[in-house]
Amino acid sequence: MKNEKMQLLVAKVKYAANHIGKILIILVAITVGFIIGGMYTRANATVEEKAPLDMKSVHKLKETSIAINERSELMIINRQTGTYEIYEDSIGKVVFSLYASQMISNVSK
Questions:
Q1: How many angstroms separate the Cα of 17 from the Cα of each of 6, 12, 31, 59?
Q2: What is the helix (H) or strand (E) element at residue 68, kind and residue range?
């Protein structure tokens, strides 16, 4: 009788230890993943941030190309670096209307 109770107790302890072991493995994996994710984030936080647009310099026509693509979007291309910016078609129309109104006011003076 004592031997059966002891075997039953050992079986229950093994069952509980098995479940506790599985839970510990999952918790360790989550903790390690969290720590590695934090280290990765800190390591990549020093990536070059995009510099704000420098409004002090004037882009000259010799170093700039302007185009309109098939979707009527305005493209301003820097010939020296090959970089470009694309603007929605409505922005191109606003720029055109501003220059057109300035030209009209200059003619009527």
A1: 16, 8, 21, 72
A2: strand 64-68
For the stretch 57-75, pLDDT in tens is 777 888 999 888 888 888 8
| Cα 20 from Cα 54, distance rounded (Å) | 59
Q: Distance between CA atoms of 15 and 4, rounded to whole angstroms?
A: 16
Q: Tell me if the pTM is above 0.85.
A: no
DSSP 76-93: EEETTT--EEEE-HHHHH
In 10 A of CB 14, how many CB atoms?
10
Query: What are the domain boundaries of the chain?
Result: 1-47, 61-107
Contact 75, 85 (CB under 8 A): yes
- One-character DSSP codes across 27-67: HHHHHHHHHHHHHHHHHHTTSPPPPPP--SSPPPGGGEEEE
